[in-house]
Amino acid sequence: xxxxxxxxxxxxxxxxxxxxxxxxxxxxxxxxxxxxxxxxxxxxxxxxxxxxxxxxxxxxxxxxxxxxxxxxxxxxxxxxxxxxxxxxxxxxxxxxxxxxxxxxxxxxxxxxxxxxxxxxxxxxxxxxxxxxxxxxxxxxxxxxxxxxxxxxxxxxxxxxxxxxxxxxxxxxxxxxxxxxxxxxxxxxxxxxxxxxxxxxxxxxxxxxxxxxxxxxxxxxxxxxxxxxxxxxxxxxxxxxxxxxxxxxxxxxxxxxxxxxxxxxxxx
Length: 267
Ligand SMILES: O=C(O)CCC(=O)C(=O)O
Hints:
Elements: H1 8-17, E1 19-22, H2 28-42, E2 53-56, H3 58-61, E3 74-78, H4 84-91, H5 94-104, E4 108-118, E5 126-129, E6 137-138, E7 143-149, E8 160-163, E9 174-175, E10 188-189, E11 199-201, E12 208-211, E13 216-219, E14 228-237, E15 241-242, E16 256-259
Antiparallel strand pairs: 1-12, 2-3, 3-4, 4-14, 4-16, 5-13, 6-15, 7-12, 7-14, 8-11, 8-13, 9-10
Helix pairs in contact: 2-4
Bound molecules: 2-oxoglutaric acid.
C-alpha cells in the first residue's frame, strides 16, 4: 500500500463525518494548468477531447442571461479522460491517488471527472444530493470523490456544502427540485431541501476534500463578480461489482484503471 497522506485524526473524521479536507493539497503552480486548459477549451483555442461534454448553464442556454464572455456561459466540463492536461495532471496525480487508495484499496479505477465552473450572474446552485446515485456498483465504501478548489471558495461564491454523517444512511430517492433554474441532471435528494445541519466548506485554492459517495452535498449560488471553479474526480476499487442488471455507462464514460490491477469480475 502507498503511503497515506492522512493522519489518524483525518481518517477518523472521514469515518465519522463522511469527508475530510486536506488543506493546500495542490500548490498554486500545480493548479494553474487546469484553469488555463479549461479556459482554452471554452474559448475554443483547444478542441474538447473526444468524449468530453462542455455544458452551458441553463440560464444561458434558455436566454435568461447573456454572458459577457464564453467562460461566463459554462457550468462545467466533464468526462475529460482524453484530455492529458486535466486527466494526467489531476486524476492520475500520485498524491491524489495515494489519498484515494486509502478508501478504494490498491486497484483503482477512475469513474467520473468534472471541472465545475460557477460563473457570476447565473443561479448555478446544485441541490443537496448523493453521488452514489450515478454509480451502479458497490460497495459504496470503496468509492470516493475528490474535489479541489481552483479559487477561494466561500459561502458568498457558492462553496461546497455537506451534511456531516449522512454517509451512514441509505441512498435516497432523487428528483428535480422545484427551482426555476436547474442545470441538466442536477438532481436533489428527495425531502432533504436546505438541510438544517449542512456545513459550508470554506476552502482556499488547492484545498481538497475527499468524500464518501453517500455524503449529502451540494453548493449554493455565486453571489460575487468572480468565478468559483473546482476540479473533481471519483474513484472506485476495480474489485467493485455491478448491481444486478446494471451495466457500465459505456464508451462515453469508461471506468479506467489508474493504479494497480484489473479484477476480472469487477467493474
Ligand atoms: O462544485 C459544485 O458546485 C458541486 C459539485 C457536485 O456536488 C457534483 O457535481 O456532484
